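Support reply, case 0932

Customer input (verbatim):
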Amino acid sequence: MHAIEKILAKAAGKDAVVTGEIVNCRVDLGEVNDLYLQTVRSFYEMGGKRVHDPRKLVFIMDHYAPASTIQQADNQKQFREFCREQNIELFFDVDQGVCHQAMVDNGLVSPGMILVATDSHTTTHGAFGAFGTGVGATDMAVIMITGKLWFRVPEIVRFHLTGTLSRGVFAKDVILKIIGDLGADYGIYKGIEFTGPLLKSLSVSERMALCNMTTEMGAKTAYIQPDQITLDFVRSRVKHDFQVFSTDSGYRYAAEHTYDVSRLKPQLAAPHSVDNVHPLEKFIGTPIDQAFLGTCTGGRVEDLAVAAKILKGKRVHRGTRFIVVPASKGVLLEAMAKGIMQALVEAGATFVTPGCAACLGTHEGILAPGEICITASSRNFPGRMGSTQAQVYVGSPASVAAAALEGKITDPTGYLD
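Our regenerated output:
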């Protein structure tokens, strides 16, 4: 079996599972964000009285952090009341950041676990050898009541990454290239595994970016086999025991792809689809109104640090807004301690509350009709960050910072010498 299949088999109490099989699995952690008050409504509509295990549920107020409308504020109020009523102690309020980073920061994610959240980018946690996937409100209500959920065992596709990344090229460029080559529908309900020697040179942050963006291929989950980098990171945060699963030798993947990244150049996903990917050089000189750095895809300390390297001692281009959204409170504090935040603020960046912010087009940096934005977040659909008449380019944090400096799309390579 593949490691993903072993995780599902153990959680289902079975010796083995096969592709396509429906299994009912114990869920190690269920997470609800503030978009999904319907989870609470469904919980009661389905006859719920007490949650199955309050220790295995976490509620995070990240999409509307802080609330920007009366309705959002009331939704968050109802979440707080529900958690108090149900004795759910893992409640992270509007100061904690995006769920995917906040859970990691607080030691809630480890290899071998099944993590289900009301957020499509839960594939991020494959970076830690976990089975992470997103669900809707009704499925989450089932988890809240029973502690379990059914899954169809996905077929697994392997991406073997070789070579060395050139200066100015990052994991975000790698995954954009893959999505551009294969399309936004290639990975529907598949498990996407990354292997290969390139991983040894990728930090945990970069691995999270890889796994995060598999959602833009339709993936059910993502996976990177835990190595020493993973284990050192997890053990520094996690207090509970965990099990690392390995894929059996001779396992046959549904498909395999090999990418030598040595000659890869910075990539951009152009409006209005994440698989509309081309080398960044095609768009050099395109003027931008806003550069957006942050959230669960590109808001970790390393991402802010590369932006500070490009912008320190300089100024954001006049007429261009540079919005920075740390992925979590922990990221913000570290950026403050290392002088990263000061360098960016002095350069003209606007910091907003750790969380999702304008990534979902509701507040803190949304776009007006006709405006052009370059973002390190995950999506560029029409209306994703505000007006349906705005244009959004998706790229690496370095590409975003370079564009903020120049006021136009720019190759970041020369700024990273």
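We compared this against your earlier run and they match. Two observations from our side: Residues 156 and 253 are 6 Å apart (CA to CA). The mean pLDDT is 97. Please reopen the case if you see a mismatch on your end.
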